[in-house]
Amino acid sequence: MMEMTKLNRRTFLKVSAATGAAAAVAPRLLKAMELELAGKDVSPVSGVQRKAVPITCHFCNIQDGAIAYLENDRVVKLEGNPEHVSTRGRLCPKGNSGMWYSYDPDRILYPLKRVGKRGEGKWKRITWDEALTEVAAKLDEALKEDPNTIVLKYGRNRTGGVLDRFMQTLGSDSIINHTSVCESSKKVGMEPAWGPDIETPDFANTKYVLNFGSNVLEASYFHNPLSQRVAEGRVDNHMKIVTFDVRLSNTAGFSDEWIPVHPGTDGAVALAIGHVILREDLQDSEFINTWTNVTVDELKEHYKQFTPEWAEKISGVPAATIERIAIEFATTKPATIFTYRGPAKHLYGSYNEKACMMLPVMTGNIERRGGYCLPRGMSWPQPKPEPPKPAKHAYMNKHHHPLYPLASHGVSHLLPFHIADGTMKVNVYFTYQDNPVYTNPGARAVWGKVLSDETLVPFFVSMSSHMGEETALADIILPDCPYLERWEPESMPNSLWPWLGIRQPVHKSLGESRENRILMRDIIWKLDPDGSRGMRKYWEFKDGEDYMRHHFDNIPGLKEAGGLDFLKKHGVWPIYGKLDPRTGKIVDKTGREIRAEYGLYKKELSEEEMAGAIIDENGLITKNGKAIGIQRNGKNYVGFATPNRLINVRVDEWAKYGFNPMPTFKRIPWHETMREDEMILTTFKLNVHKQSRSAAVKWLAEIAHSNPAWINTETAKKIGVKTGDLVRVESKVGYLVTKAYVTEGIHPKAIAIPTAFGHWEYGRLATLKLKEKKPEWSHGQEDPDFNNVWWDDKGVHPNDIIPAIADPIGGSQAWFDTVVKVTKAGPNDKYGDVVADWDRHVEAFKEGLRYAYTGDLHRKMHPEMAHWKGPEEAGHESEGSHL
Amino acid sequence: MSEELRVSPIETRGKTCVKRYAMVIDVRRCIGCLACQVACKAEYDTPLGVNRTWVPYRVVGKYPNVKKQFLPRLCNHCDDPPCVRNCPVGATFKVEDGGFVLQRYERCIGCRSCMAACPYNARFMLPSHRTYTPITNVVDKCTFCFHRVNENLVPACVQTCIGRARVFGDLNDPNSEVSYLVAKNATQVLRPEQGTKPHVFYIGADRNQTEFARDAYHRPEVMELERAAFKRHFKI
Lengths: 883, 236
Description:
Mean pLDDT of chain B: 90
Number of strands of chain B: 10
Radius of gyration of chain B: 18 Å
Helix content of chain A: 25-40%
Strand order of the largest sheet of chain A: 5-4-16-15-14-6-7
Largest interface: A-B, 90 and 75 residues
CATH architecture of the domain at 112-182 and 394-484 and 506-544 in chain A: 3-Layer(aba) Sandwich
Strand content of chain B: 15-25%
Distance between the termini of chain B: 43 Å
Distance between the termini of chain A: 53 Å
Oligomer: heterodimer
Shape of chain B: globular
């Protein structure tokens, strides 16, 4: 009877809410004939409708749903997929120009073998059979010694598990990622706190945004889908956005307020904002007491130390501004924050990330409409059988480094030092969509040196479609396919609606290029032609499409819709609604905008799920030894994806290694001792480029091809330079000479140089060697448009002079911490000079290790952890915990 | 507008049964991503060095009170277009139903009168090399994606606009989104003093950028080096 009443009441509420919504839109019921926003494309010259193939974009890693439009079997246009709930038919400038990966005149289309010295640029075209035979022979030798001497390092891996399958088939644990040069400290700051490694801010429905150092309108995780919602929130929902950044990025320039901070001090500002909120009693006490592992009183006590005056001294942000922003943030509901790499890419990046994350937690903005939401993703099954995990652990891999036990996403940028000192022995080195010789700290001086050394890396195979800085040092190049010619499964939590997507070839792969899963299969087939070695059974599939069937044909819901065939036709599943030509939003059958589901952690466990479960005195619900939920106020909720199903403000695991388990901030020690004439070098991405692989894309290169260093007007006056003048930027590991861009839009103590420029490889356009004749390794079709290239400045790449330092918690490269001296260039300085020294890089690397939990400076940096017993205590537990 | 006030017989405003296409650019929503500029390049195989649409920016204010302003630009498809008046061979014309200002490539003699007449710098000469389109060495310009609009599709730049800053539609239809935006918001047009009656309306643009607006073309100092390189190397 009770149940009946409840249901009726709910239905009644639903009906009345719907009527209310209809009344609200009533004044605009008269609909005009609006033009369609997407879905087809015609040629402006012939008027012929272009053939459409739905794909998932993979220019960068946002994974926008897209449609490739073809004329004469060639992609001429790329658009957003209107059926995609995140992308809603739109693409960024990078996504719009993705066909130039495929049609780059300097694309590699045939297997190549080095004939000159390593890196000399002399290549011979060989057959696939020759290439595979040589690779298989080298693998055989390496397997005899130790499978872990086969190292595979990848940059962008969207294969959906193929690289792991390959390495596990070989029995090697030496699979290395790139996350530590990306956002790993952010992930490590968040995971122990609430489970997932990223947030989804509900920008469209929020009223207030605190953006700490993210440049979401140009780059960052989920640029396109999130930017759409930022614009929507700002204009349709009248939200306010405040950006803390050292530089006037497009995001800062768009924001209602740009508050410049001293580089590396966002964390202190976030803590001081928290201090004001707690001092003024503006926190959401019920949320804190119910859903976190601390009480309001504990939190208030802990935050007492972080006064706005303390933060002002460190960050330069006036205490009054901090007070004002704190009160605005706490009293405006809903509100959210966003961070990406800004706070995280510092020596103590994970502390900074956590300090920021505490703001939506203490104000109870978690998982609310317009708040700070959990990511929504979907997964897919792997083809069976699956190879077992390797028997023996490598010294380091994609989620483990013994000196950085909390860095669950690895510390990949330290690999060359470990290859050089012998801790990582290499017999065969594979690279896939990676270019650390360009993208990593130390660049040429570190990675270039190690990968050029045949005693350290005896055999080097690059799976690449382009002659990048790293591929140029390879012994064998296996021509991989760009994303428009690959099969790949996709899902990305880039909006509040989960989805599965597909990448499918738009046409036959050009030349003799083979997509990654095929070429890896071919290597395994060569090693184990008859299956007698037990490797081949993991690679029994006809082609990429066949592989996708294993992923997609048995997913409940998708299976009924048609499985892979549905995805081939639509590119994405599920389809939540139709793109409304009037509003650009996704609407349901009744014409109303679809609404996301909120409060995921408050989902109640069903009776079935609760059967056989045990509830302990803290309310933790466990079943078969696994925590499945938490009891709160008499209800059984799923809670958060942490071991105690709560948000962990206090992360006890950190304390085991002598790190402060509570939100805190550490100043970068070498910033405290900076001299008056020194500055801090930061790097960034521009709206039209990604890290290393876009310089050969002509439309983007035309918009941005050089990277003068941003210097504040006042600072420039002191140094005596104006825009266009040469400056010399010197760090402790080297120096470079570049042009200055004098602007009001940067902190006077910061110098900012964008990356993606200054290539010395990557084809004739990226290196501006267009007058030279087509190299022998280049197999693409020439583009007459290259005659129109008018720019003559390719920029200067800064990574050589940035030392490799890792966050002792998150393992991130401390990209934005480098102290440099900036002076007007001398008479002998030439534009483009880059000088960096391996020995000085090694010294800097060793200095960085002193901050690791085993290092001598760790304790000095953590006086508050005096009770910590020392690394010996923690050491044993760390072994294996991340493997 | 009454018939007597019309300056030009080809105007589309308020004419019954005639469409009057316009673009509203809400710069409050523009994130400066340049997707529009690149989508346009793809749509038309536009060669390097020239653009049908482009997005200049400027940085205003003094540290730490600084803003970045973007002003997406394209042909204004004027109701009274000076380029049409100035073309000696009738290569440039206005489509009566819709108001598109278009170019007949086969008639264009490349005299550049239209380029000189346009107060918006919206026209350019095509260089001799293009990737796959055979039309070269004539004047080209934005067409408001005439070929797409005919197929009931919005222009390519509107299609891809991430912030949905660009909205396209029929101003003669009082219920269209563009009519609604123009009615509900204060709008500006570029260089109204020229009397061209533009069909690109801006919401939220800085009036220093739009009126008597040499400033609209004022390029940041950092662009001077680029300009010099362009002058040195770009050959038609």
